[in-house]
Write a structure and sequence with these properties.
With 280 residues, the protein is an alpha+beta fold. The protein has ten helices and ten strands. A six-stranded antiparallel beta sheet has the order 1-2-9-4-7-10. A four-stranded antiparallel beta sheet has the order 3-8-5-6, with no helix packed on it.
Length: 280
């Protein structure tokens, strides 16, 4: 018999819940929530009825429920369900909408199912960071970009005109991250530094630099890590000296950016050093 696993985490930084269901067989009768649900199917196939419309859900499909959207779902062909979602109370959603659009209101999403959506990947990454309880602003950056796209494409949100180019402010943020990359930096710190809202800081920085603030910070850390590894300093020590939350995070990001693990990269230099020291 398949073992069911149900995990619920409340993120105190983002102020909403993250659910993860694995191996679920349960049929959910018609019901509604008084909060927003944004989720995706990891594995499995489900028959969903929402607002009197029927859907067949598969892996990679994103689901959005507005507060009070009636919905029911059941398994198909005996397959189990692996599912992740975030649950956002209306008052919390209002604050995020204000941050992004400059207007405080509760949005109405126009589509309940986004088939094979590209948003499943950032939603998965956001969810995983929440479950791992990482203390950096990557999750906030991911969520604001995700919600911006959902509001832009699936509501009638009225977005403000693009902010003017603020080169000095962006330079200030870059210089701050370059000087404090070994520390835990928050989005609140960066926005307070230049007097911009978090959302507008993200958009303006990404437009001007071609890379998001978090990716910029992690790239700074990786560049410094490469120099330390080249000096033969072990990866565990390098992770701590360059601001990564743990060695696993460091290893994963290093390999994604460089194509080698930190140990493989360090080995290049230790082998070269041995070759130089070996008499001919």
């Amino acid at each position: 018999m398949t073992r069911e696993v149900r995990t619920v985490v409340f993120d105190t930084d983002l102020n909403f819940e993250a659910y993860q269901f694995e191996g679920i067989m349960q049929k959910f009768p018609n019901h509604f929530h008084d909060y927003y649900v944004i989720g995706f199917i990891e594995q499995g196939k489900r028959h969903l009825v929402c607002n009197q419309e029927e859907y067949i859900l598969n892996s990679g499909d994103v689901i959005i429920f507005n507060p009070h959207d009636p919905h029911a779902c059941a398994q198909i062909d005996g397959s189990t369900l692996d599912y992740r979602c975030i649950n956002i109370q209306p008052e919390v959603m209002r604050k995020y909408v204000l941050e992004i659009t400059g207007q405080e209101y509760t949005p109405q999403f126009t589509q309940n199912v986004l088939y094979q959506s590209e948003l499943a990947l950032p939603l998965h990454d956001l969810h995983q960071i929440i479950l791992e309880d990482k203390e950096d602003f990557h999750k906030e950056e991911l969520f604001l970009f995700l919600l911006e796209q959902l509001l832009n494409e699936y509501t009638d949100a009225d977005f403000p005109p693009p902010a003017q180019e603020l080169a000095l402010e962006i330079m200030t943020i870059c210089e701050y991250m370059e000087s404090h990359y070994t520390e835990s930096i928050t989005l609140n710190q960066l926005s307070g530094l230049v007097g911009l809202s978090k959302y507008h800081l993200l958009r303006l920085f990404t437009r001007q630099k071609g890379i998001s603030p978090y990716c910029y910070l992690e790239t700074l850390r990786i560049n410094h890590a490469k120099r330390l590894l080249g000096q033969g300093i072990p990866p565990m020590e390098v992770a701590g000296q360059t601001g990564f939350s743990d060695q696993s995070h460091f290893t994963n990001f290093f390999k994604k950016l460089i194509g080698l693990t930190p140990k493989q990269y360090m080995r290049i230099f230790t082998q070269q050093a041995r070759a130089v020291d070996t008499p001919s």
